[in-house]
Design a protein that fits this description.
Number of helices: 6
Strand order of the largest sheet: 8-9-10-11-15-16-17-18
Strand content: 25-35%
Largest sheet: 8 strands, antiparallel, barrel
Number of strands: 18
Helix content: 25-40%
Oligomer: single chain
Shape: globular
Length: 356
């Protein structure tokens, strides 16, 4: 198991923790050992469920228990998972979330199901190389996100989750057709000014979507009346105009990327990590997924995607007044490439359906 570094140090390397091992014996036999807990290897079991899926089961879960009971187990888990003690964490809401995570994860006792995931395919014109990133999520700590590109959109899919947004959900979506020009550094400190800029773009996106839907309705109506020629011309002009605007916007953003611009978080925006880059290459309008505990009442809210460099990006959640910093995972995973674009898209759809 690859664990993220301790919160909020996103640039630190991942941590490695073995969960099971297989001893291959003579005559095609093998033994399986569970590595979970602190009492050394013990008897386990592995079952191949179907292609690209298997499950593990510990046959001696008493090896996972500690003499000091659940309290000792929790304190040990807290040191390993967060690198601190509960007394170090003064925020009551954060204490509550940490307790929820411990109760949730410890109930499995290394009886887990594993499914293969593919790394996202890349293209030469991608904004940056897609892949896996460590990101800060407020009191939830660090989580793993997969960044992938899909035409005019980029998507951040959670590989690890939390009590609000589970793994498999699309945490952020970046609209590459709508770059945002940041104000000068003095005005950037003003949250209301940044909020005004982002909300103006949100309204522009809403209008464009509405016009597109109305154009499609007109085209369908004209086709039904056998008068498609009348509606084709204005729809074509609208599409060409939209594409021209998008192309110009993206070109302008890429041109501005050649010269970095100063960046600072607006006053009032909360960040777990104050060691974020002070220059950025470009910014885009985006949306972030928020929800209550248990993934209740999920909704997409406006935000801004900030590209810092080839290995780091950020996202400001406007409604939460919160900032997430993401740093690339540089572990080399072998044989993780998708056999095709279709296979990768199908995988994304499957992992999201597991938690919807």
């Amino acid at each position: 198991m690859y664990l993220p570094p301790h919160d909020p140090h996103v640039d630190d390397p991942m941590r490695f923790k073995p969960l099971f091992r297989i001893h291959l014996m003579e005559r095609k036999s093998a033994t399986v050992e569970c590595m979970y807990g602190h009492k050394g290897p013990h008897n386990g079991h592995i079952q191949i469920v179907k292609k690209d899926e298997f499950s593990t089961k510990c046959n001696q879960t008493d090896h996972h228990r500690m003499s000091g009971g659940r309290q000792e187990e929790f304190r040990t888990w807290l040191r390993e998972e967060w690198g601190r003690t509960l007394e170090d964490i003064f925020h009551e809401h954060m204490q509550e979330l940490i307790l929820m995570k411990f109760i949730y994860t410890s109930q499995y006792d290394n009886c887990l199901t594993y499914r293969r995931i593919y790394l996202p395919p890349s293209n030469a014109d991608d904004l940056l190389k897609p892949g896996l990133f460590k990101g800060t999520y407020g009191s939830h700590g660090l989580e793993i996100v997969m960044l992938s590109f899909h035409g005019k959109k980029a998507k951040g899919t959670k590989i690890t989750g939390d009590p609000n947004i589970p793994a498999g959900q699309q945490t952020v979506e970046i609209d590459l057709a709508h770059p945002i020009q940041l104000p000068d550094i003095e005005n950037l400190c003003n949250f209301n000014e940044l909020s005004r800029i982002v909300l103006e773009v949100q309204e522009q996106v809403r209008r464009e979507q509405q016009e597109e839907e109305e154009g499609q309705d007109e085209e369908e109506g004209g086709s039904r009346q056998g008068d498609s020629q009348q509606v084709e011309q204005p729809v074509q002009r609208d599409d060409a105009g939209a594409e021209g605007t998008e192309a110009a916007g993206v070109a302008a953003a890429q041109e501005s990327a050649l010269t970095s611009q100063p960046f600072v978080l607006p006053v009032g925006v909360i960040s777990r990590n104050e060691d974020y880059p002070r220059t950025c290459r470009m910014c885009f309008y985006g949306t972030g997924l928020i929800a209550g505990h248990g993934f209740t009442s999920p909704e997409r809210t406006p935000g801004i995607f900030i590209l810092f460099d080839d290995d780091r990006f950020g996202f400001i959640w406007l409604e939460l007044k919160s900032f997430s910093l993401y740093s690339r995972i540089k572990v080399s995973f072998q044989n993780a490439e998708a056999p095709s674009r279709e296979a990768f898209d199908e995988m994304l759809k499957n992992i999201q359906s597991m938690t919807t």
